Amino acid sequence: MCGIVGYVGNRKEVVPIIIEGLRRLEYRGYDSAGIAVGNGHGLELRRAPGKLKNLEDVIRERPIEGSWGVGHTRWATHGRPTEENAHPHRDCSGRIVVVHNGIVENYLALRHELASEGHQFVTETDTEVIAHLIEQQLKSAAESGKTLSLEDAVRRAVRRLTGAFAISVISAGEPNKIVAARNGPPAVVGVGEGENFVASDVPGILHYTRNLYFLADGDMAILTPSGVTLTDFDGHLIERPLQRIQWDPIQAEKGGYKHFMLKEIFEQPRAIRDTTLGRISLDTGRVFLAEMEISDEEFRDIEKINIAACGTSWHAATAGKFMIERLARIPVEVDYASEFRYRDPIAGRNTLGLLITQSGETADTLAAQREMIAKGSKTVAICNVVGAMIAREAHGTIYTHAGPEIGVASTKAFTSQLVALFLFALHLAQVRGSVSEDESRTLVEALSLLPGKVREILHTCDSECEALARRYSGARDALFLGRGIHYPIALEGALKLKEISYIHAEGYPAGEMKHGPNALIDETLPVIVLATKDEHNRDSVLRYEKTLSNIQEVTARSGKVIAVAIEGDTAIRQLVDHVLCIPAAPELLLPILDVIPLQLLAYHIAVRRGCDVDQPRNLAKSVTVE
Fold this sequence. Notes:
Its EC number is 2.6.1.16. It comes from Paracidobacterium acidisoli. InterPro entries: GATase_2_dom, GFAT, GFAT_N, GlmS/AgaS_SIS, GlmS/FrlB_SIS, Ntn_hydrolases_N, SIS_dom, SIS_dom_sf. The chain folds into 3 domains: 3-245, Glutamine Phosphoribosylpyrophosphate, subunit 1, domain 1 (4-Layer Sandwich), CATH 3.60.20.10; 254-448, 3-Layer(aba) Sandwich (Rossmann fold), CATH 3.40.50.10490; 459-614, 3-Layer(aba) Sandwich (Rossmann fold), CATH 3.40.50. It is 36% helix and 22% strand. It has 18 helices and 24 strands. An 8-stranded antiparallel β-sheet has the order 3-2-4-1-10-9-11-14, with helices on one face. Strands 5-6-7-8-12-13 form a 6-stranded antiparallel β-sheet. A 5-stranded parallel β-sheet has the order 16-15-17-18-19, sandwiched between helices. The longest helix has 23 residues, at 450-472.
């Protein structure tokens, strides 16, 4: 959940490097922030509760300098978000400093043990025990007349930790060295010329280097100005491929937009195009998924698919269920990843596991993947970050190529996931022979037109949604309705509104209105209805007609209806208060267009309410602990 940045090298101004890196990772946590740097006088710390700007104010009042150091921006798990609990944390001597992302599950037992040996604790955090454990290892070695390196002390310490952690450690006793270790949450090491970096996510160091090592669980990295050494927790040398990241650092900037979220909403035409690029043939209608270690024969033998995901990715997964079952004719079960492994799920050799995660490091989704593999299933990952843990453990990966997504509320990652799911469903259908060549060509051509259609929606709906925000930003509640494949989009629209505007919002299948939600409707309740249709699909037209009946249920009770409908639909305008129009598309692709007005509406309402759109309270971008 937290952001870590570390630097060691030949630059004199290390503090601005770390602060700038933390700024790019502030989406990972913004309850407090801190920095520790090493110089000829030892280690100096500055910390502050609240957002990163508070730490910058402290540093302006009490400047520090150093040639190496680590910084941290926190999303609180253990201990309140106070200056005292802010990272970095020190040992008793003040010569060991640790920053940590994750949860040490056995910290209370370790704390009691260390306290009995004379260690004094000053915070409520689990992280502080790590600094004391490292100090204890160094002290025990010295008492035996031995000299222990910082990396060996860290190795001994981490072997005593239970839980998930990514840490970076520096010591006044070993200048110009950072030791990083990973067991669960992500950690990347950047390699430069005469300087090296460590971070919990790529954007934190992308402005300085694109050459990265992605650490795996059980990896340790020792960074000095002259190089990087990778070992396991037992000290054995290991090799990891040095990967070249193609993201342009400017992609992680706001680019003139008021918020990252708005920028990322408007990046969706590009993100959708990049997700399809090189994967479809307009001539033949074929889909090509290159990064697969699963043969066509194995795909044909699949009897069931288990999908696991969290949050917005779960909504994409639920829409993906409709795509896969309709095209490939394979039964699909969708689970919240946090629940999957706790219900003894049915999986095996003929069951495929499909994992969906923007970061590729979501703890619950990784745990679900490992449960699937343990039961004999092969897994495919849909992921945005090249080299992420979930991709390394999967038997096949579909990278979404959405680029860095900084806003906590996912937008372009979601639509890219829907595109990836559609590509996967169509590829599976082609391998299994459940879709004709003509239908494949029609669908692929429709897919290729989506970027232009999304651009059109952005152009026409942005100002309309801004106007609606002026009218409905004072609402206390909102209801989102959809049928079939549009129901998960209703869920996503409700999630977007609640997470960034703090308005209570719920998504419901429109057909369930009579079973409870009708009780909520009055003249103050905005009801957002997905009332789109594919004129060439009989089931879609029937769904649309049923949705019109649901709209009449709402208006009969004085509810205010905002409908998302197809351009040229004159009938619906007679029934609702407002219409947001989108272009026509095949039924399975309509959800990708449906969601754009919902994203814009949530954004403008949140801005109107004065909310922090990019960093909503109590949330972080990447949930890397359970």
